[in-house]
Amino acid sequence: MDSEKQRLSIEAARLYYQSDYSQQQIADELGLSRPTVSRLLQHAKEKGYVRIDIIDPREDLNILAIELKKQYQLDTVQLCYSPRNDYEEIKKHITKKAAEFIHEVVQDGDIIGVTWGTTMHAVARQLQSKPLRGVEVVQLKGGVSHSQVNTYAAEIVNLFAEAFQTIARYLPLPVIFDSIEVKKMVEADRHIGRIIELGKQANIAAFTVGTVKDDALLFRLGYFNKDEQQLLKLTGAGDICSRFFDAQGVLCSEDINNRTVGIDLTELRSKEKSILIAGGQRKIEAIQAALAGKYANILITDQFTAQALLQ
After folding, report:
1. Which residues in the chain show pLDDT less than 50?
2. What is the DSSP-derived secondary structure letter of residue 129?
């Protein structure tokens, strides 16, 4: 009798916990009454045939955040939980987390520097309004494109400015010029120079990291010829503010860098809050390289990316 009860309780437990059967469905399947099934399930728990673990993702996130902070010598790590290790799903959650974090930390008198791209656009769209005084929002790199691909540059600066009840400061230039001479000449304009200087003064910088894969936004925008793309793919790991670096965070090409308009990577190291918002398997190498270069002191990402960065 005991062996039969054991068999039935285990069978009922398998159907209930592993196959998602209802107690009535189990009763029909095993030819038992519903109260009997309920007693069998209780018996299975009491005898230890069933073990139930409650996993609170917030607890795991706290541990991961502490380990990431220590390994990469970061001031702050903000982790969000993503139900799937899928790039678009992860982006949805990290951008929400980033919008909440930025809303919380921005104070009166802050100067916020922002970059562009789909990740930053998603952050900007989720920002909640916060009435502050003396806040300024400035574009950290050129945002005009000769391609049909949308960078969302103007929309992002506008949305940030609206959230903090200020006006947007645009950098109305291509992000990369064809020649150093033309770039220097344009930067010599006092109005352009004032915007670039404001970006340097920003105490908060919010940005993501790009990749050197074929579908990278900067490649699709048409700024590079085939030789330049090949060079960046061979030597690069990622880019921040359209400045490309290798796996150690060192610039890949002085020539390309000298033609790029906007904040220098070294200036990110001195920011009070240098916030890197990125996640997903396709960006692991780029995130690691950015952290190796010490370009961020705050990281906002998800648990899957965090685990990969710690391996």
Report:
1. none
2. P
